[in-house]
């Protein structure tokens, strides 16, 4: 079977126009190059080149192989270039947008640390839960939780965020017990108005099937941190990301309910404009952010 190395060598012979020039470029002997091309022709069962003392000419089969081989060579070079220099100094400016929860929890510190590691780099970070328009608003990178609908953007999966239903011990002690999701219909449920499925449409599972339950309540907000404060004050229940209330659960100031029924998990993604080769500083920052999430994995 023909080897990729021989295919790459063949494309270089064609591009250099002779065995001699290709041999010099590859620091090989001319006879070694000639033997490998002959071997490639034998393995493929076709003649690739017409050889004369003055020049090389591609056969029809050689023409096809050259164009396909050139694509492979360029793809390989692009792949190597994508990781070359990851440990080299990074420079330039990055404008990014991140969710308020992740921004306050870990990304502000993680991104500032990334800047300190690369003195030639500057980052402007905006905290915003709404999905910004990367192109018109000139963002280089956006971190978002949820689903990507714009096919002109590239999304790299980073992590999963688990959500759960919670309330304060005081609220639970003074209200009817909650044993199934339907019991929530008799409770004050605080709504997250940025929820894509609906402010008061809460997701549950039964027998491995997922369904939405429409709850009701007297307060809603597009800020999950505001809902957390309302729940801590004993005003009702809320469906919140685990990372936001992790410390409250550990301290016992909030309690999780319906543990066996909740299954809401949203992916966290790094999103950037479509490009064949994103800048190394963007790739490096995404990896740095991914590691920051992994370090506090239990909170998610």
Supply the CATH class of the largest domain: Alpha Beta
How is the quaternary structure best described? single chain
Average pLDDT confidence is 87
Number of extended strands? 13
Shape: elongated
Strand content is: 25-35%
CATH architecture descriptor text of the largest domain = 3-Layer(aba) Sandwich
How far is it from the N-terminal to the C-terminal residue, by CA?
A: 49 Å
Low-confidence stretches: none
Described by strand count, sense and barrel closure, the largest sheet is: 9 strands, mixed
| Share of helical residues | 25-40%
What is the SS-derived class?
A: alpha/beta
Our count of domains comes out at 3
User: CATH homologous superfamily of the largest domain, by name?
Assistant: Periplasmic binding protein-like II
Tell me the number of helical segments per DSSP (H or I, 4 or more residues long). Answer: 9
CATH topology type of the largest domain? D-Maltodextrin-Binding Protein, domain 2
* Topology as a string of helices (H) and strands (E): HHHEEHEHEEEHEEEEHEHEEH
Query: How many whole angstroms does the radius of gyration measure?
Result: 29 Å
């Amino acid at each position: 079977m023909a080897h990729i190395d021989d295919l790459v060598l063949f494309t270089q012979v064609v591009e250099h126009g002779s065995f001699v020039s290709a041999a010099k470029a590859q620091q090989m002997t001319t006879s070694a190059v000639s033997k490998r091309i002959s071997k490639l022709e034998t393995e493929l069962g076709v003649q690739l080149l017409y050889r004369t003392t003055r020049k090389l000419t591609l056969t029809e089969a050689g023409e096809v192989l050259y164009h396909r081989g050139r694509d492979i060579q360029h793809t390989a070079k692009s792949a190597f270039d994508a990781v070359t220099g990851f440990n080299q100094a990074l420079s330039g400016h990055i404008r990014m947008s991140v969710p308020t929860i992740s921004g306050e929890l870990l990304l502000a510190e993680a991104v500032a640390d990334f800047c300190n590691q690369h003195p030639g780099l500057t980052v402007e970070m905006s905290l915003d839960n709404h999905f910004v328009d990367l192109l018109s608003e000139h963002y280089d990178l956006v971190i978002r939780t949820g689903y990507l609908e714009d096919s002109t953007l590239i999304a790299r999966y980073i992590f999963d965020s688990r959500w759960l239903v919670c309330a304060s011990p005081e609220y639970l002690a003074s209200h009817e017990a909650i044993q199934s999701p339907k019991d929530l219909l008799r409770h004050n449920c605080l709504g997250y108005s940025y929820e894509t499925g609906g402010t008061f449409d809460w997701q549950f599972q039964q027998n491995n099937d997922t369904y939405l339950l429409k709850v009701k309540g007297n307060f809603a907000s597009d800020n999950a941190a505001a809902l957390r404060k309302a729940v801590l004050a004993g005003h009702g229940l809320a469906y919140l990301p685990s990372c936001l209330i992790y410390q409250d659960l550990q301290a016992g100031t909030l309690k999780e309910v319906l543990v066996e029924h909740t299954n809401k998990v949203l992916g966290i993604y790094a999103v950037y404009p479509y490009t064949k080769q994103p800048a190394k500083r963007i790739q490096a920052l995404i990896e740095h952010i991914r590691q920051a999430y992994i370090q506090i994995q239990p909170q998610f």
